[in-house]
Amino acid sequence: MDTLVIVSSEKVTDILDYTILIPAIEKSLAEFSKRTGVIQPVRNVVLIPESEGFLGCMPVYSREDDILAAKIVSFFPQNKDVSTHHAVMLIFCAHTGIPKALLDGDVITAKRTAATSAVATKYLVNGKPDVLALLGSGVQARSHVAALSELFTFKEIRIWNHRFDGAVKLAEEIGLNCASCRDVSEAVKNADVIVTVTSAKNPVLRLDWVKPGAHINAVGACRPDWSEIDADLMRSAVVYVDSREGALKESGDIILSQAEIYAEIGDVILGTREAMREKTTVFKSLGMAIEDGVAAKLVIKKLGIE
Ligand SMILES: NC(=O)c1ccc[n+]([C@@H]2O[C@H](COP(=O)([O-])OP(=O)(O)OC[C@H]3O[C@@H](n4cnc5c(N)ncnc54)[C@H](O)[C@@H]3O)[C@@H](O)[C@H]2O)c1
Ligand SMILES: O=C(O)[C@@H]1CCCCN1
C-alpha cells in the first residue's frame, strides 16, 4: 500500500473555505440528481440502543468528479463534554482502489452540511432575506451561521435552544444583530430563513409560527421515527430534499407526516424542477456521501495528494 496520508481537523479547517466549498457542493448536488455518474447507496446505519445513537457508513463513487470515498460517522446524542458527532473519511484512488488519505470528518460534516443548506437557501429563499432564525445552538448552528453569511447579509439573527444558556452563549459569540430567544415562536416570528439544527426527536417548529413564504432548512431528525417539524407544516410547505431515496428511508419529518416530496434540490439546480420561492419551502437535509467526497477531494487536491 502507498503511504496513507492522514489529514487533521486543523488542516481541513484551514483549507475548506466556504468560498470554494459552496460552489463545489452546488455542482455535486446537481451531479447527484442527474442519476448518471454518482453511485451512492442510502447510508447504512448500525443503531446503538444504549446511547440512542448510531454509526453510519456512507460510501460514494462519482465518475464525473473522480471520487471514491467513504465516511463513517457516529452520533452519540447523550455526549456531554465531547461533540455528539464524530467522523472519519477515507479517500481511495478511483482507478486502482488504493487508499490515499484518511481525513478528519468532523469539520467536513459541519461545513458541507451548512454549505448544502446555503445552496438550498440560495435557490429557495423568497427575495433578499433579512431575518435568520436558528433552532439549536450546537456545531451545526455555528457552521450554518458562517455558511449562510457567506451568501447573505442578515439584519437580524435569532437563536432558540432547548437549553436557554446554549442560545445565549452562541448569540454572544455571533455578537452584533444576534439575540437569544426563550420561545421558538419568538425566534421564528417573521423570519425569512429558519434552520432547524437540534437533536430533537419530536417537532420543535410549528406551522402557525412560520411566516408564509419563509424558507426552512430542516437539518436534524435523521431517523424514520424522529421529526423536528410539525406534520401540518411539512404537508403545507413545498418540500425539497437532498436525496429522494434517502428521505423516504430516513426522514421522520417526511415519513410520519406523509408530506409529498416536490423535488431534489439538485433538480432545481439543473433547472428540471421549479424553485417555488414565493411559497413556504422546506429543504429536508439528511446528508449525502457525495457532499463529503467533494469536500474531501478539495482538501486533498490542495495538499497535492493525487
Ligand atoms: N443533514 C445533515 O447532513 C446533518 C449533518 C450533521 C448533523 N445533522 C443533524 O443536525 C442536528 C444538529 O447537529 P449538531 O452537530 O449541531 O449537534 P450538537 O450536539 O452540536 O447540537 C445539538 C443541538 O440540539 C439541542 N438539543 C439536544 N436535544 C434536544 C431536544 N430534545 N430538543 C431540542 N433541542 C435539543 C442541543 O442543546 C444543541 O443545541 C442533529 O440532529 C444532527 O444529527 C445533520
Ligand atoms: O450526513 C451526515 O454526516 C449526518 C450524520 C449524522 C446525522 C445525519 N447526517
From TrEMBL:
One of its GO terms (cellular component) is cytoplasm. Its EC number is 1.5.1.1, 1.5.1.25. Pfam families: OCD_Mu_crystall (PF02423). It is an enzyme of class 1 (oxidoreductase). It catalyses: (3R)-1,4-thiomorpholine-3-carboxylate + NADP(+) = 3,4-dehydrothiomorpholine-3-carboxylate + NADPH + 2 H(+); L-proline + NAD(+) = 1-pyrroline-2-carboxylate + NADH + H(+); (S)-cystathionine ketimine + NADH + 2 H(+) = (3R,5S)-2,3,5,6,7-pentahydro-1,4-thiazepine-3,5-dicarboxylate + NAD(+); (R)-lanthionine ketimine + NADPH + 2 H(+) = (3R,5R)-1,4-thiomorpholine-3,5-dicarboxylate + NADP(+). Coiled coil: none annotated. One of its GO terms (molecular function) is pyrroline-2-carboxylate reductase activity. Homodimer. Binds the thyroid hormone triiodothyronine (T3); T3 binding inhibits enzymatic activity. Belongs to the ornithine cyclodeaminase/mu-crystallin family. This is Ketimine reductase mu-crystallin. It comes from Biomphalaria pfeifferi.
